[in-house]
Amino acid sequence: MGLDLLTYILFATVMAGTPLIIAGLGELVTEKAGVLNLGCEGMMSMGAVAAFAVAYGTHNYFLAILAGLVAGLVMSLLFAVAALTLMANQVACGLALSIFGVGLAAFIGKPLESMSLTAGTPVAIPLLCRIPVLGPALFQQQSLVYFSWVLLAAVAWFLYRSKPGLVLRAVGEAPVSAHAIGYRVVRIRYLAVLFGGAMAGVAGAFMVVFYTPLWVEGMIAGRGWISIALVVFSTWRPLRVLLGAYLFGGCMVAQMFVQASGIHLNVPAQFLSALPYLATVLVLVLISHNRSNIRLNSPASLGQPFLPDV
Amino acid sequence: MAMRNIALMIVSGSLLLAQAPVKVGFVYVSPIGDAGYTYQHDLGRKAMEAALKGKVTTQVVENVEEGADAERVIRSLATDGCKMIFTTSFGYMNPTAKVAATFPNVDFFHATGYKSSKNMATYNGRFYEGRYLNGIIAGKMTKTHIAGFVGAFPIPEVMMAIDAFTQGMRSVDPKAEVHVVWVNSWFDPGKEREATNSLISQGADMITQHTDSTVVVSTVEEQHKAGKGVYCFSYNSDMSKYAPTSQLSGDITDWSGYYTRTVQNVLAGKGIGPNVWDGLKEGMIKIAPFNAAVPKPVRTYVDKVMAEMKAGKVNAFQGPVVAQDGTVKVPAGKVMSDNDLGSLNYYVQGVVGNVPKG
Q1: Is residue B269 part of a domain?
Q2: Which residues of A touch B194 (CB under 8 A)?
């Protein structure tokens, strides 16, 4: 029973952390290019409602994820035009996108409320899923969970081991210099923003199609904001985004298991609810307190509009 | 001639006034699509509107957060010309009272609260009566003698639900235990799902909720289809659509009788009436139809107990009611008073864990 419980908690943690990882990594790439896109919640909501609509209509979950991706991409395109071409204030645009996205998703999703969807079937990886405790927890998950790990590897490799990634980071650090060398700063930023939007859309799709198969307005319940915070608190390092996401999910799941077990706790209910947020912030701040490391990793031109003077 | 014209105008004017439909406002805390608490209120509203066709029009605002937003919405409904406003969540209590004080000509009705005034009445359902009956079914059919309860906030209404369910379950299964997980929200699908899974992993095979989404029952259905012998009881509405094989029954609230009666009384000039706390007897509380899996003897027994409850012979909180720490709160032969129910803040014996503070 003890080991079974641990497996259960790990399994639930991974599920809970996956949307945060996917959206967080997308946001990380966007911010590394120097663009602060606060519209994650709105993009996730639109991705979610699009994915749910397609999943309900076609029962094809792959198409649903694709629909979520496209929806998130389109929303981020709105942001990109406003913030990169029209050079409006990035923070204001992002906030507006968040509010707009959540509201639009609620409006579009009205006829879908109280429709039920069968949950996606998990995909078990043949040999690995037989490892004693970790097997069922890690390797009998939904396909998007495996995608999130592949995404982590891909983003880390892209940013730190490839030329385009180096260019993207350069654009985020010193856009004027990058422009002087000849790189198309605005175009690179556009691509980064669209990638971030696409990932947010996929994360939203995961939440309503695989995690809790239903749609009601407010489904995303703040996960978009948590993803943005994760990126900052993890000092823009991909692996720490994963760590923070699992820590957050893990705390949330663990406190429920503790409650369910009936162990006597003398803590207020609100504290238990706040615990995931507190723990994640605390741990990430503690491990990333080296100031020179922070300066090294944070994109210097984050949030500043780029006006080519040629 | 002029006098006759004036008289005609006055008469026709007042006839028009008398015929103009009265506006009734409704404020909901979650979307109607939650298929739970708000959905039932909306069904009641629609029934009332149909019964009083032409005499009323309704205005609905859904998904209004408790707090400052609520006050703004209630106030705008009142200034918009609503003559009656129903605010359907506990957290709307203070905003409703505040707005009621400034609109003495509008009648306010607040659900599940305890503040009232000259133009504000409360209404509530004895949800716990349905819980008691659900508990009996759980007790008769459990294999692990453990039930799971997904709770929102530790307020008296939820405590009544947990305790009544436990009383019902232990009345037929003295070994039964009820484990509780608090999600601190009326509606959070992600947390409700995790809570359900954590209860199932602890061995609970009878799950119920005091939250608003359908995720708890759909998660139980998912696990049931995967082979685990778990069953659920829905709350507020019949959620068998989301859990066709695993929902044994549920605790349903039917607000239609109350809404129709109340609006009719106000229209007839009889005033807002007393604070209402109706239950099985008045038809406000019902239980969902039995699942095919519920055996005949259990159904007969539950129907018998329900009839006895309607007749007043059996009460969900009839003595002895013993708190978790052993103190006898209601001795044998007596029934818990409405006042004590309204301030219930302890677990009865059989519930495992302790009540979180606050």
Answers
A1: no
A2: 12, 16, 252-253, 256
The per-residue pLDDT for range B164-191, each reduced to its tens digit, is 999 999 999 999 999 999 988 887 888 8
Of A213, A252, A267, the CB nearest to B356: A267
pLDDT of residue A216: 81
B197–A12 CB contact, under 8 Å: yes
CATH 3.40.50 fits A2-297, yes or no: no
Strands B276-278, B56-61: pairing kind: unpaired
Q: Which of B90, B125, B160 is the last residue of a domain?
A: B125
**Per-residue model confidence (pLDDT) at position A9:** 86
Which residue segment(s) compose the domain that B41 sits in? 16-125
Whether the Cβ atoms of residue A72 and residue A37 lie closer than 8 Å to each other: no
How many structural domains is chain B composed of? 2
CATH number of the domain that residue B59 is part of: 3.40.50.2300
* A222 → chain B, closest CA residue: B188
Q: Using a CB–CB cutoff of 8 Å, tell me whether A58 touches chain B.
A: no
For B358, the closest of A256, A263, A270 (CB atoms) is A270
- Asked whether the CA dihedral A106, A112, A117, A123 is positive or negative, the reply is negative
The answer to whether the bond into B320 is cis (omega within 30° of 0) is yes
B164 neighbors B222 (Cβ within 8 angstroms): no
**Distance of alpha carbon B355 from alpha carbon B340, whole angstroms:** 17
A256 and B183 within 8 Å at the Cβ level: the answer is yes
Cβ atoms within 10 Å of A47's Cβ, excluding its own: 39
Instruction: Determine the 3-state secondary structure of B26 from DSSP.
Output: strand
Same domain, B120 and B46: yes
Which of B66, B194, B245 is the best mutation test for A, with the most CBs of A within 10 A?
B194
**Residues B11-27: what's their mean pLDDT?**
74
Q: Is residue B118 part of a domain?
A: yes
pLDDT for res B249: 95
Instruction: Please give the backbone phi and psi of residue A301, each rounded to the nearest 5 degrees, phi first.
Output: -100, 25
State the smallest CA–CA distance between residue A163 and chain B in angstroms.
39
R_g (Cα) of chain B, nearest Å = 22
Give the neighbor-by-neighbor strand order of the sheet with B247-253. B285-287, B247-253, B231-236, B206-209, B146-151, B177-182, B351-352
Whether chain B has a CB inside 8 Å of the CB on A103: the answer is no
B223 and B311 part of one domain: yes
**Contacts with B358 from chain A: Cβ below 8 Å:** 268-270
In this structure, the answer to whether residues B143 and B176 fall within a common structural domain is: yes
pLDDT of B238 > 50? The answer is yes
Residue B279 within any structural domain of the chain: no
The residue out of B102, B125, B148 marking a domain boundary is: B125
| ipTM summary value | 0.78
Contact A114 B190 (CB under 8 A): no
Q: Are residues B164 and B293 located together in one domain of the fold? A: yes
**Token pair for residue A44?**
């996730």
Please check whether residues B93 and B168 belong to one and the same domain.
no
Query: Buried (b) or exposed (e) across B113-123, using 16+ Cβ within 10 A?
Result: beebeebbbbb
Residues B325 and B192 in one domain: yes
DSSP assigned state of B323: B
Tell me the C-alpha to C-alpha distance, in Å, between residue A193 and each of A31, A37, A162, A225, A299. 8, 8, 19, 16, 15
Domain annotation covers residue B86: yes
Half-sphere exposure of B245 (CA within 13 A, CB side): 12
